[in-house]
Every structure is written in structure tokens, then in C-alpha cells.
Amino acid sequence: MSLALQQAYFAIGVSRPNPPVGAVVVSKGIVVGRGFTQAPGLAHAEVMAIKDAGSKAYDADLWVTLEPCCHYGRTPPCTQAICEAGIRRVFYSHPDPNPAVRSKSKEILEAAGIEVFDGILSEETNRFYEAYDYFVRNQRPFVEVKVAQTQDGFIAGKNRERLIITGEEANLWTNRLRSISDAILIGGGTLEADDPLLSLRGLEGNSPERIVLVGKRPLFSHYRIFHEGKKPIIYSEVPQEEIEKMAEVHLLKGSGFLNHWTQILNDLSRKGMHRLLVEAGSQLSKLIIDAQVYNRFHVWISPKRIGEGLPWALKIEMDPSEKDQHISFINQKLNRK
């Protein structure tokens, strides 16, 4: 199942609005086929892995991260492909929240004489699919926000200069969260201060879509985000003439942060994006907290103290520690849906 989950990472950003799924076929203890879900209208992970295995799929085991589909959509049901391939046993980890699928696939496969086991490696896949589960229920992206602060509550230096606040553990954690996100959003202030690429570093998988929310701030073409990787998405209250050919620019309509945020989430919903990661600066974090438009908020707290600098919306007090500490809090109102 760990191998199947590794395959699923390659489907992020490719399969949407379908969930990212990975699968492996195992025959006599040997992996003989691997696959992940392709773009909409193309093969799902189970079919890709069975094709990769070829004739070795007969009487073999199929391991898949999400409950196989059992209904006709853009493609035939995966349960049909599984039965036709002669698979002996199916192991899946996470139940599909889609009512057209949930628990029905198991019944179909067992009726065909295939043994079915579920819940394997569920802790890992519950985290991996929580955004997909939320999207199915609400047709909205799951929003996670991340902030790093010093022990005394600052996120940047006195004159907004960039600080290296957290160490390797926190940076690796952030990179892993990026790797399961469809998109990552920053504010214009973060773009100016840090000039980030917002890409994966040292992890397999696809980098998330990159989004910058700039308000009335004019953007210039020298930032690295316009020269490396796929064109970023820019949300702006004013035209951005200098970078209009280097980015996908959307003009924000109406007034006020909540209207603008709703427009962004509506756009991402239409694109089938399940998880939005926000790496927020001082102003953006305050707007998000005041409007209560997040699902989960992460705060990394460094043992460093700088005395003065740029504070953010909150100041989290914790016992002094020699290492970075992580806390998170959930917006219960959104997560009850």
C-alpha cells in the first residue's frame, strides 16, 4: 500500500477533478504492475496497473489507495476491469465518499468471487484524502494555512526583511504538505519579500499550481515565479500589464476580502482543486482569521527570539524549547460539513 500511495502522488494535478489514486499489482510477492490515475477521460490507477502487469495480473493481488469505482463515468467502472483481468484479491485503503461508489464496489467484487480487504494504511490515506472527502461533500477546496513565527511572535524582521525562522524538520513538513496540495497561495507582500518559487524540493510528484493574491499592488517581471515552471495564477484588483503574458491574470470583482476570497475558491472549485495551501504573511493571515475562511491553520514556532520585527495576526505563546514546535487548530464551523 505504501507503493500504491507513492504512485498516487504522481496523479495530483493530473487527475482532477477525479481524486489522485495509485495502484500496484502483486503476483507471488513480486510487484508486476504500477499505475496512477490519468487525466479525466483516460484510465484510472487500477486499469493502468493491470495494463502494466499484462498477463501477470491473472490470479494476482491488486493494492489500491482508494475504493475502486463501480459506475460508468468518462470511463468504464474499474470493478469491471478488475474482474476481467482475473484479479484474485483486492486491498484498498480509503473508502470513497462518493455515494455512487461507497461500499458498492466491495459487494460487486465479492459477488464475482474476489476477496476484498479495506482499511490498510488508513491513517496515511485518511490524511491524503481528507481534502477530496471535503470536496465531495461541499464542492469547495479544503483550505490549510501555514505560518512560521519566532518565539516572541514575529514572522519577519523589523523592516520586513526575510528571516530563516524554522529549521529542516519544519521545512520538510511544509514540503510534504505542498506535495499533496493542488495549489499554493501567497500574498503580494510575501512575493516581494521572499521571491519564492513555491515548488517541491527533493520530493517526487507534481508541484502545486502557484497563486498570488496581490490586491492593488503592481507586479513586475523580475520575480522567479514568472520564469520557472508553469505560469502562475494572479488575482489582482488592477490590471497587471507587465506580467499579463507571463501569468494567468484574474481581475477581482466587487470589494472586500470575503468577496475576493469567494471568487478565488469558486474558480478553484470549478477547476476541481481539492486542497489549497496558503503560506500566509502578516496581512493575509489576519484577513483569513478574521473572516474564518480556513479549515485548518498550522503554526510553526521557533525557539528564536528577535526582540522586534513584523508580527502576524496572532501571537502564540508556548514553553521555550530547543527545537521548532508545531500546533494546528481547526475551524469547526467549516469542518462540520
Give a quick set of tags describing it.
337 residues; alpha/beta; 8-stranded mixed beta sheet; 5-stranded mixed beta sheet; 10 helices
Find the count of extended strands (DSSP E, 2+ residues).
15
Helix and strand composition category = alpha/beta
Q: What level of helicity do the residues show?
A: 25-40%
What's the overall geometry?
elongated
How are strands sequenced across the largest beta sheet?
11-10-9-8-12-6-13-15
Outline the low-pLDDT stretches. none
Order of helices and strands: HEEHEHEHEHEEHEHEEEHEHEEEH
How big a fraction of the residues is strand? 15-25%
What is the typical, i.e. mean, pLDDT?
92
Describe this protein's structure:
The protein is an alpha/beta fold. Helix content is 29%, strand content 23%. It has an 8-stranded mixed sheet. Strands 2-1-3-4-5 form a 5-stranded mixed sheet. Strand 1 and strand 2 form a beta hairpin.
